[in-house]
Specification:
The chain has about 350 residues and is an alpha/beta fold. It is built from 11 helices and 18 strands. Strands 3, 5, 6, 9, 10, 17 and 18 form a 7-stranded mixed β-sheet that branches. Helix 4 crosses helix 5, helix 4 crosses helix 10 and helix 7 packs parallel to helix 8.
């Protein structure tokens, strides 16, 4: 089969000829119908920290996926051949302390699809049955592959109690754009989105943003304070991981407010701990992945309800062979979600 893999400990990926995965007793073999690009895949392509210490080439990338079960292991009871599924990429061991207390999304021995085992940028992928999520047959492939990515944003917004609140979202990449639509559905009274491009500003408006703040052209903190009668935001969702955005998040949050962080900085950052955290009496929540499986349930229900339309976020549909183009548009900040199709 064809597969896009990290073959060398260096920048880049290669289209390769790989063996169709051999599945174990508790796995299913999935014919990939669609796979989508994540920012993590771009960082792995660039060989950014911390991936050189984690990935051992050769490794097929990709962890956002949907497809059809074509074979199942002898112990598999969670799916049948012919089922249409998506996959959760966090493979928990189900035995460590965190798993036993209900926190399997932060399993102490976590393995990741497309990082620690071969992933979904391929014609076929092996998925443990514990990571299967069944989809309705009517769900479009380009939507089904995005449920895992959207789930990051669902978890972020749900943990932030946005109902009736003034909400600011830093970062208008896909997770920020998902969060915009989810915040609207879950009852935010005012949604401000901090963007870096007009491209993303247009999509943010489509997803329900009330106010767009261009970080290159406006004083971000001043604009947020102005829109909140000088008080600051009730809730800030930091989805970018940029150091200056995290600093602005803290400064634009009201006293006693909620800061929820999903973005991952590439390096340590400096903040005014006393002034912007302790003395403001704020709440801070870090987000890792999705709650298993509560977040998937919420994501599925939101999509089924038709109260949120995520199609504006899908800006590119490409054959898998054009993975270089997919990475280029994502790295340039000129895309929402890029969905690729092996066939």
């Amino acid at each position: 089969m064809k597969a896009v893999a990290k073959m060398q400990k260096a920048k880049g990926l290669e289209m390769t000829e790989a063996e169709v995965p051999q599945i174990g007793q508790n796995d299913v073999l999935v014919e990939v119908k669609a796979c989508s690009l994540c920012g993590t895949d771009v960082h792995i392509y660039n060989w950014d920290h911390p991936w050189p210490d984690r990935i051992k080439p050769p490794r097929t990338l990709g962890h956002e996926v949907c497809g059809i079960v074509v074979e199942k292991g002898s112990n598999v009871t969670a799916a049948e051949v012919g089922d249409f599924i998506s996959a959760e990429s966090h493979i928990a061991d189900n035995t460590c302390y965190q798993c036993r207390i209900g926190n399997s999304n932060i399993c102490m021995n976590m393995k990741l699809l497309g990082v620690d085992i071969n992933g979904s940028f391929a014609e076929y992928v092996s998925v443990p049955q514990q990571n299967i999520w069944k989809n309705p047959k009517s769900m479009p492939y380009e939507i089904a592959t995005l449920q895992e990515s959207m789930g990051n944003s669902v978890y972020t917004v749900e943990e932030s109690n946005v109902n009736g609140k003034n909400v600011v979202i830093f970062g208008a990449g896909p997770t920020g754009l998902f969060a915009t639509g989810i915040s609207r559905v879950l009852g935010a009274s005012q949604i401000m989105v901090v963007v870096g491009t007009e491209f993303h500003a247009r999509i943010a408006k489509q997803m329900g943003a009330d106010i767009i703040i261009n970080r290159h052209e406006q004083d971000v903190v001043k604009e947020i304070k102005s829109a909140t009668d000088g008080i600051g935001a009730d809730v800030v969702l930091e989805m970018s991981g940029a150091g200056d955005a995290i600093d602005q998040s803290l400064k634009s949050l009201r006293q006693g407010g909620q800061l929820t962080l999903l973005g991952l900085p590439l390096r340590p950052i400096s903040i005014d701990w006393s002034k912007d955290i302790v003395l403001k009496d704020i709440n801070i929540k870090g987000i890792n992945g999705r709650k298993l499986w509560q977040t998937w349930v919420t994501t599925s229900r939101l999509l089924h309800s038709k109260r949120i339309d995520i199609t504006p976020i899908i800006t590119h549909k490409l054959p898998l062979e054009k993975y270089e183009e997919a990475i280029a548009v994502a790295a340039a900040g000129q895309s929402g979600k890029v969905v690729m199709f092996p066939k």
